[in-house]
Design goal:
CATH topology of the largest domain: GMP Synthetase, Chain A, domain 3
Strand content: 25-35%
Radius of gyration: 20 Å
Distance between the termini: 45 Å
Order of helices and strands: HEHEHEEEEEEEEEHEEHEH
Number of domains: 3
Oligomer: single chain
Length: 271
């Protein structure tokens, strides 16, 4: 293991990894988007294993990283987990990328997924609903005080993830968004995570529900291409294009994990 403070966009980061013979690079979507943009030439030959977690990574970037890893004799794994499940729940193996593109894989040994509706009833294969995970790595519960540490197992090995997704007939999980990451526009319930993925073809964005509108925060100098794609999306969703409010900001705020910090973003996006 090598712990350094350098950014992955800095040449010094990869030279230090090469010096110590680092072989495994674990990254979040932000890291891999940057790596895909900068090029594989920065990464030393010693690195053979690439793992990605911490949120959804655009499928085109996944494919690019997987092909690149294979060319250098390495492997790329997509993972899915939550802290409450210590912290991994599923892995998409390198060999399954082509036939299961977009999936986060199957449950780890000893665990299992189910998809349920709003009432908690199980849903059939390929039906979108709330993702539930069961396994021995699920936490006992939340401790808000010292007294809570004396409580028993409140979770019973079952975690309602708060994610939306579907399971195919082979048990591969496909995530589609968060249960609370929605906006209701013109009577339609629109998934903000899905919109972010759709707009990623133009540029990275971060979306927020503003009530009657969806804020689309971006860092682009020109909004021409983004506006065109937003109009296409609005037509697809059958909502007015004015339902999307583009907001240019200096930088999309991110937490130390690389995930978008929506709380900070809300302060930056004027209503």
């Amino acid at each position: 293991m090598c712990l350094i403070n350098d950014s992955i966009t800095s040449p010094s980061f990869w030279s230090k990894i090469g010096t110590v013979g680092g072989s495994h690079f674990p990254g979040v979507p932000f890291h891999y988007v940057a790596l895909a943009r900068l090029g594989a030439g920065l990464v030393p030959d010693s690195v053979k294993t690439f793992t990605q977690a911490g949120g959804a990574l655009d499928l085109r970037v996944q494919t690019k990283i997987r092909e690149w890893a294979a060319q250098r004799g390495g492997q790329f794994f997509v993972m899915y987990g939550q802290t409450e499940a210590s912290p991994r729940m599923a892995t998409l193996q390198h060999a399954d990328h082509v036939r299961k593109a977009g999936s986060v894989g199957v449950a780890l040994a000893g665990g299992q997924f189910s998809i349920v509706d709003d009432s908690g009833a199980p849903l059939p294969a390929d039906t979108v609903g709330t993702v539930v995970y069961e396994g021995p790595n699920v936490m006992l519960g939340y401790a808000m005080s010292g007294a809570d540490l004396h409580k028993g197992d409140e979770m019973n090995g079952r975690l309602k993830t708060g994610d939306l997704g579907r399971l195919d007939a082979e048990g591969f999980l496909y995530l589609t968004g968060r249960t609370k990451r929605f906006a209701k526009i013109a009577g339609y319930r629109l998934g903000l995570d899905e919109i972010e993925k759709e707009l990623f073809a133009v540029c990275p964005v971060a979306c927020l529900d503003l009530g009657e509108k969806i804020a689309v925060a971006h860092e682009q100098e020109s909004e021409t291409a983004l506006k065109a794609r937003v109009r296409e999306l609005a037509d697809n969703y059958k909502v007015p294009s004015s339902s999307f409010a583009l907001r240019r900001i200096t930088q999309i705020p991110r937490a130390s994990s690389g995930k978008i910090d929506y709380a900070r973003l809300k302060d930056l996006v004027s209503v």
